[in-house]
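Mods, move this if it's the wrong board.
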Amino acid sequence: MLVSDRPAAGTLTVNSPFDGRELDQVATSNAGHVDDALAVAYALFRDRDGWLSVPERLEILNNAAAIMRTQVEQLTLLAASEGGKPYVDSKVEVIRAIDGVHLCAETLRSHSGSVIPIAKTPATTGRVAFTRKEPIGVVAAVSAFNHPLNLIVHQVGPAVASGCPVIVKPAADTPLSCIRFVEILREAGLPDAWCQVVIAHDRNTAEQLVTDARVGFFSFIGSARVGWMLRSKLAPGTRCALEHGGAAPLFIVPPYDRDAALAATLKGGFYHAGQVCVSVQRVFVPAAEAAEFAAALAKGAAALVVGAPEDEATEVGPLIRTAEVERVSQWVDEAVAAGAELLCGGEKISDTCYAPTVLFNPLVDARVSTLEIFGPVVCVYGYDELDSAIEQANALPVAFQAAVFTDNIDFANRLYKQLDATAVMINDHSAFRDDVMPFAGLRESGLGIGGIPYTMEDMQIDKMMVVKSAEL
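Not the wrong board. Structure tokens:
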């Protein structure tokens, strides 16, 4: 998928995270490939006469969405098989990705500059000033595994819409959906050189792509450790946006709809086996009813169907790697040994799947309480004072989205004001998202704002023109 004549550096075998079967093999790239890709992309950006016009970009995006609409089933099975997200949820991801491509086009149609209010003093009279949007430069996008199609749409789609040449590096576990989306863009009319895919042969190759001075904007979705490290190595002038993870809190404050809260916590906590950066992880319930709420949640979690992601009956699929199953198991075992009550789960179903697990009152300094689990584990804590629970929720170096279930408008507003979060969902789980919304982590959870319109804003500059005329 690179515009390069060099032979491949090697081959990456892509396997199913559920049963390990081989799905495909893809060619990998080395330092020479990356240098070729950057040279091609940077040359496109420097040739301003050759930039894709807005009508051309709109046509490409609309064509791509139309092609995707004819391939929903194929894209769903591809994403499910390589990423492990159950079929039903993967289909939702594909539909959402198609809508995301449309949103790129819609945002491009409405994205405009502005008139600057000058000529208000004697020294500035006879002038008019306005801005227009221009692409920021070459975009280097590094993506994560957990939404193998939609995350790519969120990074590549805005780059294409903004007129930026883009080089995308998908997660090594899930490159196939990315490759297919780029093929669709090319089928839709995007010239090959405007979007290239790097399957990095090693970490140094990936780092070379990101830190090169020819990169104008770095888009990253992944772990905080890697994201902040790469940011520290960016070339001077390279802008960036980082999306990491969190340990999302959900608060129960009476009066509330118990059935709705339980259903939302189940979905928000165990969707994609908890491998979502805003998954419900920490649930705070008044002490008098915490045990009953936790037991009801555990009953629901124990009934979830764990199995092959391609099966329409599956509700919870595998973790992305067997090492993650071992890690989650170790964290849960530690929490239980330290006094947490295990209400359901707490065991490996196989080398690839971990049982949906509910822990009651783990220690506040346990790893399940302080670090992002990124697995099918939800912790329930009883609280006596709401403000103390808020303090516990805010005590971590990560902060992303949060949720509150209550029918009391005053408590809803208090929690919205007091919680460290960029978004607080009232009477919904913390993992709710619409792609038109801003999506951002605080502190170690990220930098900048995601969401397609906001990403497009990042990938463009406002270039001003000032016109002086005696007739103004």
